[in-house]
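subagent[fold] <- orchestrator: predict structure for attached chain, return tokens only, no commentary.
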Amino acid sequence: MKRKLFRTVVVALFASCMMLSASHAADFTFHGASQFDEEHAFTRLMRKFEELVQLYYTGDKTIEFVMHLNSELGLEKDYFAYLNQGVSVDYAVVSPSHMSTFSKMASLMDPPMLYRNHIHWSKVLGGDALKPIEDDILVRSDVRIIGYGGGGTRMLIVNKPVETMEDVKGLPIRVMGAPIQTKMFSAFGMAPTVIAYAEVYNAIQTGVIDAAENEAAGIQQMKFYEVGPNIALTAHAITVRPLCFANKTFEKLPADLQAAILQAGKDAGTYGRILESSEDRQKMKQMESEGKLKTIYFKDRDKLVEAAKPVLIEYFKEQGVPELYDRIEAVGL
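subagent[fold] -> orchestrator:
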């Protein structure tokens, strides 16, 4: 009798817990993904996005965010595939190069030497100059760009000191997968090879390549300075890192929540750009002061700019949007 009563009480308690849990379940649960930990600028941008959605949304539905850190769900290229399919990942920061499988125009967001300086870059991302690219990505991949992070200045990571165009002639270097990256570094006189991001460290260490290129946050996070301690200050690109949202998820949401997500994405992107661009130089100085790397002034940067312009003009023409290059160039003039 006592045993039967005990079982009855246990079942009742379990049922009560399940009902309590169900009563607290969120109406909407969104999953985010990051290759990095909580300290990385991309993750912090997404945390700000989560915070702002909760702040801006005034409806009666409950919202929950679940963040998958440290490449738990793969790499950025995987996140974008999930966003396209509307499964596993609802929001993520993704490099434009990983979108180019769907939209060739995506790689027009941040090719080397597109932005004159951080002022030009900030004005472009804060306006609507890139809207034709956003529209193409939405049509071809069913992924929305809702904000722009980034702001890191990309430099050369080399296993030997390089200061001039002659020094980098024929230099075996890893580049991202977008065709413009290969075209551009070839125009610089280097020998580019597409290699997965996770394999860069070993590729330099084993002599498959002699160089890569990245911003300070990536150099620090991946410890590239251990195999390429000479950082040539080419400042050949300022990163653009879109905050993306799965359109299949977005279209199922009520209008007031959609509005909150769009505004939160825009504002979180601004936060992320300020955060990363301000921390970029600090991180580089920190690593140098710790003896992890050595920064080297690159004397021929003007020659990189000269080599880049015709390649950029031709690439925008190839994508059928020559006027877009002029539109971006004209911002701030």
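orchestrator: received. Logging for downstream: The chain has one domain: 2-330. The chain has 13 helices and nine strands.
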